[in-house]
Amino acid sequence: MYEQLVLLGVIALTFLAPNLGLGILFGISLPSWLTFLYLYVVLGIYFVWYWTKSGQTLAMQTWRVRMIGRKGYNLSRRQAFWRYVYGSLWLIPCVLLQWAFHLEKWQIIEMLFTVALLIWPLSIYLDRQNIVFRQSLPDRMAGTRLVELPKNRVKLS
Q: Would residue 47 count as lying in a domain?
């Protein structure tokens, strides 16, 4: 949930401001497919940049969680990109259900939240090979995992 609040700020800065400007100044609005693609790319840049820089997004820093690769190192751009792609696969069933049942906007939002916040995270219980380091489906596919960092100790100088 905290990550979503941070992402709201990222979207407001990189998406809403430019699109409101286009709409107010020129009366232009992007088609829905282009809006989705634009948001997907903006969020992808956010995640890939943070995961390759420090292994942590802003929310992950707050909760002392870090994403690492198979051998415990920072992710490469390629690995971070694929982790983002695999992490967003939950969108496919949502889009298919929306198309099949002609869902309204609020029904789509409810479905997205249900899948993203409740069902998709439960994929860690599919990891029977490694009970200690349960990995979500996207982490297993990308060869990444989340680790909890120790609490920082105050250093006196």
A: yes
